[in-house]
Amino acid sequence: GAGVSQTPSNKVTEKGKYVELRCDPISGHTALYWYRQSLGQGPEFLIYFQGTGAADDSGLPNDRFFAVRPEGSVSTLKIQRTERGDSAVYLCASSSGQGGAYEQYFGPGTRLTVT
Amino acid sequence: GQNIDQPTEMTATEGAIVQINCTYQTSGFNGLFWYQQHAGEAPTFLSYNVLDGLEEKGRFSSFLSRSKGYSYLLLKELQMKDSASYLCAVRSLTDSWGKLQFGAGTQVVVTP
């Protein structure tokens, strides 16, 4: 079946603007994760959802970042008043369960560039 | 939190074996994952270890020693397509189930 999809694949925005990044998880996957990855670094955890609720948002860097998953499927990561330091690849992942050996399946990412 | 250390880069010849080490410090270990990431692509799952010992899966094996805070990924019979970044990720008992802490990755370069 289809994997995790993310849109847009690339987003260029000006400093101070608002952006939304979308993630479509694998059908039936209950857990959804957001990470961001800077060049030469591993993914950095942002937030994860179990169903519709945010189970852990401890990785969100500040209150400019917010994510929702209103129907327990698609999720949107929202960034207000973007800064140049927000430039990174934003990765979404999903899994059929949580914990243990449940692997996280990653999407191709959205490359965000803030100019 | 965790400190996760991996070498930055390793080079090996096609057909050879390469061992990628990962050391970690965590407040309560609860599982270690290895992922492969080709340039510009999504990470893909390779292996999971939660108990000490070796897990073998085809050409790839992963080893864990919880007392030493140490894991390695062994890639045998290297192929050109194995050129990629290999990411070690750890879950801690003090974190939620979904939170993985990733190392910076080890870039493996396979030469002919």
Explained architecture:
The complex is a heterodimer of chains A (115) and B (112). Chain A has strands at 5-7, 10-13, 19-24, 31-37, 44-50, 53-56, 65-68, 75-79, 88-95, 105-106, 110-114. Chain A has 115 residues and is an all-beta fold. In chain A, strand 5 (44-50) and strand 6 (53-56) form a beta hairpin. The radius of gyration of chain A is 13 Å and the shape is globular. The termini of chain A are far apart. The relative contact order of chain B is 0.35. Chain B contains no helices and eleven strands. In chain B, strands 2, 4, 5, 9, 10 and 11 form a six-stranded mixed β-sheet that branches. A five-stranded antiparallel β-sheet of chain B has the order 1-3-8-7-6, with no helix packed on it. With 112 residues, chain B is an all-beta fold. Classes of the chains: A mainly beta (115), B mainly beta (112). At the A-B interface, strand 4, strand 5 and strand 10 of A face strand 4, strand 5, strand 9 and strand 10 of B.
Summarize the structure.
The complex is a heterodimer of chains A (about 120) and B (about 110). Chain A is mainly β.
